[in-house]
Amino acid sequence: MSVGTSSAPGAARPAGDLAELGIDPDDLPDGLVVADEQGHVVCFNAAAARITAVRAEEALGQRLEKALPLEDLEGRRWWQLTDPYGGLAIRIGQPERNLLLPGGREVLVSVRYVRTEPTGPVRRVVVSLRDTEARRRTERSHAELIATVAHELRSPLTSVKGFTATLLAKWERFTDDQKRLMLETVDADADRVTRLIAELLDISRIDSGRLEVRRQPVDIGAAVGRHIQAYVAAGQPADRFLLRLEQPLPALWADPDKVDQVLSNLLENAVRHGEGTVTIDVTPSASPREGEDAGTSVTVSDEGAGIPEESMNRVFTRFWRGSKRGGTGLGLYIVKGIVEAHGGTITVGRAPGGGAEFRFTLPVGAPAYLS
């Protein structure tokens, strides 16, 4: 089945017969419908059948306008409107646009007219179909992200504005202790805004595949220890944390800042949402080949209520917050992106004590000049 155009002698050969190129139309992610020079459908791939809910065997051999009845958003019959076989001889196709299938379902449609000569008759009409649901999910996700960010920014910025305006207007009326308290609040809220901006940048880089990993030697045990010490210094009881290191651990090359970000998020979840002892196990991960270390695994578990079974598959998605509200719900999504950028994996399950258990594994990796 040819879907290309002829080329002048010496020109690069266009993509012609899909079979010659070893491509099965059913393997294409988008719907593909091809009509011959008589307007009869000669190709109707699996994606087209899924999008239109029309079986390929029913569409093949039918007139294009009958097999794929499309209307524009004003209800006009699109094939009569565009007239691919009888329209302008210089026309090469139709740009992508939203059209309606029977029943009112929207699809994105683009069309290519294939001619053997620049102004010759149309030999093939090649139609590409894309389901709009994926685009709508993306648009909804972006809208939700904007709404979440706006909500999270409003509170600290209102606080910063209120305290600074009050201090500027009534500086002499406050004692030094009162001034210090208000400035400490402003400082904390500024940190909160900075963290939110950092989260947004991380999401942008993760979604676009541009999250950079700057590998250095990382002592994962020492990194966990620093986080525990910070919690104890902030008032958490020391006996709430149990760190278990299995030695020897393989040399780990990873991005220390991003490893800290992962540890910070998982420990914060365990402390804030869990109960009882927070246990951190650091172990060498098993290797497919005997005698070799594949990397290092870190398991963070608590003794709280845990995560409901029906929510397990949504934990690492955007905006998941569990039963307790608060925060942006972006932290675990970013954690997963960081771990996977290192070539690692992360899972969630139920801890032996009944709480939540997060386990991530980072491969040994390589020095920066080798990665």
From TrEMBL:
GO terms for cellular component: plasma membrane. Keywords: Kinase, Phosphoprotein, Transferase, Two-component regulatory system. It is found in: Cell membrane. It is an enzyme of class 2 (transferase). Residues 1-20, 280-306 are annotated as: Disordered. NCBIfam families: sensory_box. It catalyses: ATP + protein L-histidine = ADP + protein N-phospho-L-histidine. Residues 148-366 form the Histidine kinase domain. It comes from the Bacteria. Residues 26-62 form the PAS domain. GO terms for molecular function: phosphorelay sensor kinase activity. Its EC number is 2.7.13.3. SUPFAM superfamilies: ATPase domain of HSP90 chaperone/DNA topoisomerase II/histidine kinase, Homodimeric domain of signal transducing histidine kinase, PYP-like sensor domain (PAS domain). The keyword Cytoplasm does not apply. This is histidine kinase.
